[in-house]
Amino acid sequence: MTKLAFIGAGNMNGAILSGLVNKGFNPQNIIVANPSAPKREALSEQYGVLHTSSNIEAVAFADYVILGVKPHLIAQVCQEIATETAIENKCFVSVAAGCTIEQIQQALNGQYPVIRVMPNTPSQLGYGVSGLYASIDVSENQKQQTAEFMKSVGIIKWLNTEAEIDHIIAVSGSAPAYFFLFMEAMQNKAIALGFTEQESRELVQQTALGAAQMVINNDLPISQLRKNVTSKGGTTQAALTTLIDGGLEQLVTNAMDSALHRAKEMAENSN
Ligand SMILES: NC(=O)C1=CN([C@@H]2O[C@H](COP(=O)(O)OP(=O)(O)OC[C@H]3O[C@@H](n4cnc5c(N)ncnc54)[C@H](O)[C@@H]3O)[C@@H](O)[C@H]2O)C=CC1
Ligand SMILES: O=C(O)[C@@H]1CCC=N1
């Protein structure tokens, strides 16, 4: 049975790990490594996975090593792994933004198989989106297996170039936060209108869920769904005019460009 080592027990690795276990992956074939205990212990208690403070122990256990530490720590972690344990036959899966395959292989000190995956946190619930790009050193079997892991927590898209990983960051990796910010702003206004915090949350979350479900269940363009809510001279038109005149569309484009730019900058700074 394939074994997985999650290096880092943070938000993203935690989301993938929990998504996998929720979908029936045997937790006894998963180990999570984190220097401090609370997060890995919580994952172990909740999902039944093994845990350790030692990256080396975790890597020795597994066929696939999911690198889920902050980007600036990836090189250090890879160097530690490569110098302290045998890593032949292991496949490395990095979820880090702004950290290239070349940089990871350099830190591992060899052309080991590396797959970059850019997931997002809704993976935890099986609603993730992941972009995948594999180095030429990755076998067909390793590609297939990694695709299977990520498919079990959401939809996947194989990318033709590594540069497209940055596009995925802008479109889906960072994007749950865009929607959360929009929902926070709506919740705050609902509170200002007199609803309780909980009422405001329920009103906003149900509306967001309903809107997303309408997009999913319709062949209509999203713009048509918007038009269907917008009565001429009505309340929605008044609200949308305020958003459009305020530059929302350009702002969204600029925000996605900023994510892209930052991903490139992070890769350059990692050299
Ligand atoms: N949070 C997100 O929505 C997404 C994050 N990512 C990527 O995932 C990676 C992790 O991000 P988050 O989970 O948000 O960060 P996080 O801070 O929640 O998790 C990182 C974890 O790594 C642990 N850690 C620190 N040093 C370590 C070491 N030497 N060995 C093992 N573990 C160590 C930390 O204690 C922490 O639990 C980043 O590279 C990020 O670019 C990618 C897509 C989405
Ligand atoms: O904010 C970040 O850098 C990471 C990558 C995508 C989502 N979180």
Helix content: 55-70%
Mean pLDDT: 97
Please work out how many helical segments DSSP would assign. 12
List the ligand species.
1,4-dihydronicotinamide adenine dinucleotide, (2S)-3,4-dihydro-2H-pyrrole-2-carboxylic acid
Principal-axes geometry comes out as: elongated
Low-confidence stretches: none
Radius of gyration based on Cα positions: 21 Å
Order of helices and strands: EHEHEHEHEHEEHEHHHHHH
Stated plainly, the CATH topology of the largest domain is called: Rossmann fold
According to CATH, the homologous superfamily of the largest domain is NAD(P)-binding Rossmann-like Domain
The secondary structure category is: alpha/beta
Q: How many strands?
A: 8
Biggest sheet strand order reads: 3-2-1-4-5-6-7-8
Architecture of the largest domain in CATH?
3-Layer(aba) Sandwich
Query: In percent, how much strand structure appears in the residues?
Result: 5-15%
Number of domains: 2
Biggest sheet features: 8 strands, mixed
How would you portray this structure in words?
By secondary structure, the chain is an alpha/beta fold. The protein has twelve helices and eight strands. It folds into two domains: 4-160, 3-Layer(aba) Sandwich (Rossmann fold); 174-267, Orthogonal Bundle (ProC C-terminal domain-like fold). An eight-stranded mixed sheet has the order 3-2-1-4-5-6-7-8, with helices on both faces. Helix 4 (71-84) links the parallel strand 4 (64-67) and strand 5. Bound molecules: 1,4-dihydronicotinamide adenine dinucleotide and (2S)-3,4-dihydro-2H-pyrrole-2-carboxylic acid. Residues 97, 169, 173-174 line the site of (2S)-3,4-dihydro-2H-pyrrole-2-carboxylic acid (A1CAB).
